[in-house]
Amino acid sequence: MRPVRLEMSAFGSYAGKVEIDFTQVKQGLFLVTGDTGAGKTTIFDAITYALYDQTSGGRRDGNMMRSQYAQKETDTYVKYTFSSSGKCYTIRRNPEYLRLGKRRGKDGSLRYVKEAPGVELTLPDGSVYQGKKRETDAKIAEIMGMDVDQFTQIAMIAQGDFLKLLHAESKERKAIFSRIFQTRLYADVQENLKRSASELYSRLENNLKSAGAQLNRVEYLELLEEEEEKRKRWEELRELEVLPYEEVLENLEWMIQRGRQWELKKEEEQKSLQEQLYTLNGTKKEAESIQKLWDSLNKVREKQQALEEEREAVQKIEKRLLLGKQAEPVQRQELLCRQTEKRVKEQEQLIRKTKEQLEEERRLLKERMLQKEQARIFREEAEERWIANGPKLMDAMERYSHIEELEAELKKRKSQKETLWNRQRGWKEEVQRDRKVQQECREKMDLCAGSKERLFSLKTQKKTLEEEERKLAELTERKSQLERQEGEIRKVQEKAVHDRQAYLSAHERYEFFAQNFLKAQAGILARQLVEGEACPVCGSKVHPNPCQMEGDTLSQEEVNQARKRRDELEQLRDQSEEAFRTKAADYRARWEAFAKECGKLGIVWEEEKRTAENSWERIGQAVFLAVDGCEQRLKKCQLEIGQAEEQQRQYEKAKMAEQELSERIQKLEQHLLEEEEPYREAERKVQILEGTLQAGREALPYAAKQEAARRLQELKTEKADARRRMQEAEEQEQKKASLVRELEGRIQEADRMIKKWSAEWEEEKGAYVLSLASQGFATEEAYQKALLSEAKQGELEEKIKAYRARVHEASGMEQTLTAELAGRAPMDLNALEVRISETAQNLETVREHQMKLHGMNAKNQEVLTYLMEASQKQGQLEKQYAVIGNLSRTANGTLSGSVKLDLETYVQRQHFRQIIHAANRRLTEMNGGEFLLRCRSVEDLSGRGQTGLDLDIYHVASDTTRDVKTLSGGESFMASLSMALGLADIVQRTAGAIHLETMFVDEGFGSLDDQAREQAIRVLNNLAGGNRLVGIISHVNELKEQIDCKLVVTRSDQGSLVHWEEV
Asked: Does 276 share its domain with 351?
C-alpha cells in the first residue's frame, strides 16, 4: 500500500480543507516537521481513521476528531487514496457530529442537525462498493488483510512507544505478541487443558470423599465372638484415606449375607407368634360371647320377678280408669255451663272498665281543647315576632357577607403591602451584600489573571469526554428502543407469513377453477363442431380429437368469486409484506446506526451471536462497561487539570460573579424604583378598605355574623314550632273525640250480649243436673272425685300397655336364652387376657428387631452398590487424569525438572527469533556491528514468573552478554528502531494481504549523536530505497538539513496548515 493523496476537512487541528499529495515525494524518505501540537501525528491518525474508523493511538475515535477551530457549516471527513499492485482505491469517511443546518427554525433561529457517520469505498474500476457501513468496513479490512493493531504496528512506530517492546518484561511482550500474531488460541488450549485437569482432579477427590462418607453409613451386625477379628479389620478399613476397594467390597458383601440370615430367622419367629396370637384372640371372643349370654339370662329372670310384684297395682289403675271414662259426659255438660257463666261475667267486667275509660277520655278531650287554644295564641305571637324581626335579619346577613369579602380583601391588601415592604427591604440588604462581594471578586480577579492559556488543551479534552458520555447515554436509550422494536417486528413478520399462505391457497384455488371453466367451455364448443365445417377457434374443418367434458362444470360466477377472493388476499398480503419491509428497514437502519455509534465509541461484542437470547444482555453489559470507562477517563482528566484549572476556575468564577453582581445590583436598584409606586398604592388601598369596613360594621344589628345568624335561626325555629304545636293540638283533639264515640258504642253492644248469655246460662244449669243422675253419680262430690284429665287418662292407659308389653318381652327372652345356653358353661377370661398380652409383647419385640435388621441390610446394600460404581469410576478418572494432567503440565510449562515455558510462549518465541533476526540486519548497519540483539536461551531462563521472551545484548568484540536495559539512550533508540522495523517485516510477511509500502517513524532522533543519527537515516534511506515511503515525524533541526523532502505543518489560531517544501 502506497499513499497517493490525503484530504482532511475540519479534522483534528486542521480547521478547513487540507490536501496532501504524496506523489510529490521524489525520494522514499521525507520529514514531517512542525511545532509541538501543530498536528504532525494527526496525518497518520487520519490515514488510520480512513482505513479502520480509529486513530493510531487507539485513544480517540472519529467522533472526537472534529476540529475545534472549524466553522459551523464546515463538514468533517477524511478522504484517503492509496495504490496497491497498480490498483488505486479511495476511501471517504466522516464521523458523527453536529453541523449547522441549511434551514432555520420556525422562529428564525439557527438549527443544528446531527450528521450520521458514513464511509464510501471507491474500487479501482471507479465503481463505489455497494454495502452498509459495517459491510464496507469489512471489505476494507479484507483488502488490507490485517486489523488496526497490526497496521499501526507495521506502518507507524508511534511516538513514545519506541522502548516499550525493547524494555518490556517477558510477560508484557507476551501480551503484545498475542494481540499482533493472534496466538490467543494457544493460550485458550492451555486454559482448557488446565481447567479439564483441575476438574478431573476435583472429581477424583470428590469420588474418594463420597466413598468415605458412604463407608461411614455402614451398620455393624451383632457378631459372634469368633468373628471379632473381622470387625477389627473393618474398623481399620474405615480409617484408611485411600480405600482398597476389593477388600472393602468383599467384607461388606459378607456382612450383608450374615445380616440377611439374621433377618430371615426373625421373620420365622414373627410368623409363629402371629399364629399363636390369632388363636388366643379367637378363644377370647368366644368366652366373652358366652359370658354375655349368661348375664343377659340372669337379668331377664330378675325382671320377671319385678313384673309379678307390680300386677296388683296395675289392676287398681284399670278400675280408676273406668270411673274416669263414666265422668266424661258430665264433664262436657259442666264445661258448657261454666263457659257461658264466664262470658256473662267477662262482659259485665268489660262494661265497668269501658265506662271508667269513657269518663277519663271525656276529661282528656276537654284538656286537648284547652291545649289547642293555647297553641293558637302561641302561633299568633311567633308570627308577629317573625314579621317584626325576620326580614331585617335576612337583609343584614347579606351585608355580613359583603363585610367578610371586604375583610378578605383587606387581609389580601395588607399581605401584598407587607410582601412589597419585605421585598424592598430584602433588595436593599442584597445590594449592600453584593457590593461587598463585588469588591472581593475584583480583588480575586487581580490575583488569578493569566491562567487561561495553560488550560486550553485540557478543557478541550474534557469537553470531548463529556460529549462521549452524552452519546453513551443516548446509546443506552436507543438500545431499549431497539429491544422493543425487535419484538414488534416479529409480530408483523408472523402476520405477513400468514397472509402470504392465505394468498397462495386462494391463488391455487382460482387457477384450478379457471382451468376447469376453460375446459368446460372447450367441451361445450366441441359438442357443436360439425365435420366439414370450420372451427370458430382455429378454422380447421377436420376435427380428429375434440375436447371431452369431464365431471361437473363451474360457472363464470364461481370463477369470478374465486378471482375476487384471490385479489383481496393478494392486496392484504402486499400490505402485510410492505408493513414488514418498512418496519424491518427502519429497524435495520436504527440497528446499523446503533452498531456504528457503538463501534465509534469502542463498544464491541460478538456480532455473530447477536441473535442469541442473551444478545441484548451482552450488548447492555458492553455499553455499561463503556459508560464506566468514560466516567473513569473523565475523572482522570479532571484530576490532571490540577491547580492550574483551579486558578482558572477561580478567575472565571470571580469574573463571572463580578459581572453577575454588577447586573444584579443594577436590576435590584431598578426593582426598588419600580416597586416604590406599587407599595404606595397598596398602602392607600388598605386605608380605604379599613374606613369602609368601620362604617359597615357600625350599621349592623349585631357585632358578629354568627350572633345574627343564631337569632335569625331562633325566629325561624320558633315560628316552625308554633305551627307544629297547633297542628299537633288539632290532631290530638280529633283523636280524643273519635275515641269517646267509639267507647259509647262498645257499652251499648255489651249490655245486649249480657241479656242473651244470661238466658242460655239458666238452660245449661238444668242440663248439668240431669247428666249427673244419668251417669250414676249420687252427688256432685262423687263426680268430682271420678274426674280424670285427658293427660292423666292417657298416662294410665300407657302404664297398663307398657306393663303388658314388658311381661310379654321378658317371657320371650327367657325362652330364647335358655335354649341358646344349653350345654355351654362360663370360661376364665382373666387367664386368657394374660396369655394374649404376653404373646403380643413378644411379637412386637421380634418385629422391631426384624425391621431394624431389614433397614440395616437395605442401607448396607445401597452402600455396596455405590462403592462398586465408585470403584469403577475411580479407575476411569485416574486414567483420564494421567493423560490430561500430563498434557496440562506440558502446555502450561509446569513439568517438574523442565523450563517453565508454556505453549503460547513457545509459539511466540519462534516469531520473536524471526523478529530479532530481521532487527539485527538493520542494527548492524546502524552501529557497525558493535552489538546485536539476542533472544535469551532456554538454559538461561529463570524458573520463576513468566519467561521465554527475554532479550539480551550480545557484544561482538568482547563476546559478552548483558541486559538490554543497560543500553544508553542512543543505543536504545537504534535497538528499538531495529526491533520495530523487524517486527513490521515479520507481521507484514505473516498477516498482510497487501504489501505496505509506507512507514511513519514518530520522534526519538533527539537522543542520537550525529554519527548514530546519520547511520539511522542511512538505514531508513535503504529501507525507502526498496520502493517504500518512510516518513519521519520530528522537530529535530538536524534532520531538516539531512532530509531534503519535508512536509511542513504550521499552527495558527484558525487551525493548522500543511505544505511540501523541497530544498
From this structure: no
Q: Indicate yes or no: pTM above 0.85.
A: no
Contacts of residue 423, defined as CB under 8 A and 6 or more positions apart, other chains included, come to 671, 675
- Ordered DSSP codes for 197-255: HHHHHHHHHHHHHHHHHHHHT-------GGGHHHHHHHHHHHH-SS--HHHHHHHHHHH
Closest C-alpha among 1055, 975, 964 to residue 1008: 975
What pLDDT shows up at residue 955?
85
For residue 862, tell me if it sits in a domain: yes
Are 358 and 410 in a shared domain? yes
Query: Grid coordinates representing 149?
Result: 493493531
DSSP state of 701: S
Residue entry with cell 487581580? 446
Q: Residue 120: give its domain's CATH number.
A: 3.40.50.300
Residue 941's alpha-carbon distances to 871, 883, 899, 915, 949, in angstroms, are: 44, 27, 7, 19, 9
The confidence score (pLDDT) of residue 131 equals 87
Rounded distance, CA 985 to CA 791, Å? 136
**Helix crossing, 245-309 with 311-326: angle to 10°?**
60
CB-CB contact of 317 with 799 (8 Å): yes
User: What pLDDT shows up at residue 81?
Assistant: 94
My answer on whether 470 and 532 are in the same domain is: yes
**pLDDT for position 123:** 92
Matching residue, cell 462418607? 213
Cell 499492485 sits on residue? 85
Contact yes or no for 145/994 (Cβ under 8 A): yes
Q: What angle do CA 39, 42, 46 make, to 5 degrees?
A: 145
Domain check: are 228 and 281 in the same one? yes
Q: Which pairs from 404-407 meet CB under 8 Å and 24+ separation?
A: 404/705, 406/689, 406/692, 406/693, 406/696, 407/693
* 185 occurs within a structural domain: no
pLDDT at 5: 92
Taking the C-alpha atoms of residue 473 and residue 476, their distance in angstroms, rounded to an integer, is 5
Which DSSP category does 996 fall into?
-
- Which pLDDT score, from 0 to 100, does residue 121 have? 93
Which of these three, 588, 623, 658, is where a domain ends?
623
Single-letter code of the amino acid located at 1038: E
Tally of CB atoms within 10 A around 256: 19
As a 3-state breakdown, the chain gives helix, strand, coil percent values, each rounded to 5, of: 70, 10, 20
Does residue 483 share a domain with residue 570? yes
* Domain match, 410 and 460 both: no
**Same-domain pairing of 551 and 436:** no
Rounded to 5 degrees, φ, ψ at 964 are -65, -20
Residues 564 and 589 in one domain: yes
pLDDT at 644: 67
Question: Which residue ranges in the chain fall short of pLDDT 50?
Answer: 159, 224-225, 608-613, 945, 1063
Q: How many domains does the chain have?
A: 4
Q: Is residue 154 part of a domain?
A: no
Q: Beta strand 951-955 with 931-935: parallel, antiparallel or unpaired? A: antiparallel
**E strand residue ranges, 125-227:** 156-157
Measured CA to CA, the distance from residue 470 to residue 454 in angstroms comes to 26
Give the residue from 845, 880, 915 where a domain finishes. Answer: 880
Instruction: Give, rounded to a whole angstrom, the gap between the first and last alpha carbons of the chain.
Output: 27
Burial class (CB in 10 A: 0-12, 13-18, 19+), 190: buried
Angle CA 1030–1036–1042, to nearest 5: 60
Q: Are 633 and 651 in contact (CB under 8 A)?
A: no
Q: Which of 278, 283, 214, 291 is nearest to 252 (CA)?
A: 214
704 Rama class: left (phi>0) / alpha (psi -120 to 50) / beta:
beta
Full residue range of the structural domain in which residue 258 is found: 212-291+828-880
State the pLDDT at residue 755: 77
1045 in a structural domain: yes
Q: What pLDDT is attached to residue 59?
A: 52
